[in-house]
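Dear colleagues,

As part of the handover before I leave the project, I'm documenting each prediction I ran so the next person doesn't have to rerun anything. This entry is a single chain, and its sequence is reproduced below.
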Amino acid sequence: MEHGSGEKLKCDQCGMETPSSVYLTRHMRERHGPGREKLELHCKVPGCGYKTIRKYMLKSHMEVKHDDNDERPPVEKKHLCTECGNSYSHKSGLSFHMR
């Protein structure tokens, strides 16, 4: 499937959509696979509820969303994909998306 073809693959368990079978496979393993609860890292900020299995993602979440346990306003997503309209707060996110 080519980027921008408009076709989306959908997770049959939660409805998440992605244009990539690689992302869908990873999503299924990490979000719905057996034993994933043991791997989850949780944001410690009361009321946040963010969780991930990747340490660097939790660190990024804390930098973007929280400052010394106080919520900051959301970061502006100024890096826009010209093919599909997705936006990213960091240029690296857009670069990863475009691969």
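The first helix runs from residue 21 to 32. The chain is about 35% helix and 15% strand.

All the best with the project,
I.
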